[in-house]
Design brief:
The chain is an alpha+beta fold and about 290 residues long. The chain is about 20% helix and about 30% strand. The protein contains seven helices and 19 strands. It binds zinc ion. The site of zinc ion has 5 residues, from loops.
């Protein structure tokens, strides 16, 4: 993704992994192959690999530099987590791209996770001398308190597969005194606020970035693929509350359709950034080129 300038804020991407990943059939239980095939014919070529029949899915972190803060939004799968294949991504690309973005671990002032799935909070911690410690020593880590509580409860009830995301990626942050547990009304500064978009996870939030009349929204996993913009009813196998996710997508698309607001969905491949536009009676995703 090209560096995006939103007034006084710049946004860049750090990619961990990209390429063909899952078929729509495997990802969306309500997928209709005939309807899907029609959409895929007219979607941007970057989003689908006709050879494998798989959607192209990227895993990336967004670096948001506001006038006062350097924020990582979502931290991919991370290192040393021991996830089985295919989630055992090579960690070097993320580290190399982090460096290429001119960053050091010490320079990060905040980390925000749109939600607490394994591919959004992995680099929160690293294993040092057998202990999970915060990767970014000077950062405050912002968690939605409802999202945090939900994963804490599920983990304590033994119902949080795969891995122990709360145990490894979240609890050590709280124990180190670096966590900020916030609600929907949180504002980091005058450029950075939250939009509650529950469904994919209990308290999933988008990040609303606004400066000098311009706006961008990091949409986390509100949608994983452009097919879900065409068909907001396509829920994923990973969603906590499918009906809430569908209404979050409708509400969000309605709020930004045909406006200049730039949308940044974490799993959309390069060029990633785009706009929600009108298509017939529904919506389309138009990449910024
Ligand atoms: Zn995800």
């Amino acid at each position: 993704m090209r560096t995006l300038i939103i007034g006084d804020v710049t946004i860049t991407s750090i990619i961990e992994r990209d390429g063909p990943w899952r078929t729509p059939q495997a990802m969306f239980p309500a997928y209709d192959p005939a309807i899907g095939a029609e959409h895929l014919k007219t979607l941007a070529p970057e989003v689908f690999d006709p050879v494998t029949g798989q959607m192209v899915i990227t895993y990336q972190t967004f670096v948001v530099r506001t006038p006062r803060h350097t924020v990582l939004v979502d931290t991919c799968t991370g290192d040393h987590k021991g996830y089985p294949a295919p989630m055992d991504f090579d960690k070097q690309p993320w580290l190399d791209n982090f460096k290429k973005a001119g960053l050091s671990f010490e320079a990060i002032t905040h980390v925000f996770c749109t939600h607490l799935h394994i591919d959004h909070c992995g680099w929160n911690t690293v294993l040092r001398d057998g202990r999970w410690v915060p990767t970014f020593p000077n950062a405050k880590y912002i968690f939605h308190k409802g999202e945090y509580a939900a994963w804490e409860a599920l983990t304590k009830a033994g119902k949080s597969p795969p891995g122990n995301v709360w145990t490894y990626n979240c609890l050590p942050i709280v124990e180190a005194g670096q966590a900020l547990l916030v609600d929907d009304t949180y504002a980091l500064d005058e450029t950075f606020t939250l939009i509650p978009t529950p469904g994919h996870s209990p308290c999933h939030c988008c990040v609303d970035i606004h400066s000098k009349g311009q706006r961008a929204i990091v949409t986390g996993d509100l949608m994983h693929h452009a097919l879900q913009v065409r068909v907001p009813e396509l829920y994923t196998i990973f969603d906590t509350d499918t009906a809430a996710g569908i209404s979050s997508r409708h509400r969000f698309f309605e709020s930004v359709v045909d406006t200049p607001a730039v949308v940044l969905p974490v799993h959309f491949p390069n060029p990633t950034a785009g706009r929600i536009t009108t298509l017939g009676k529904g919506y389309d995703y138009t990449f910024l080129r």
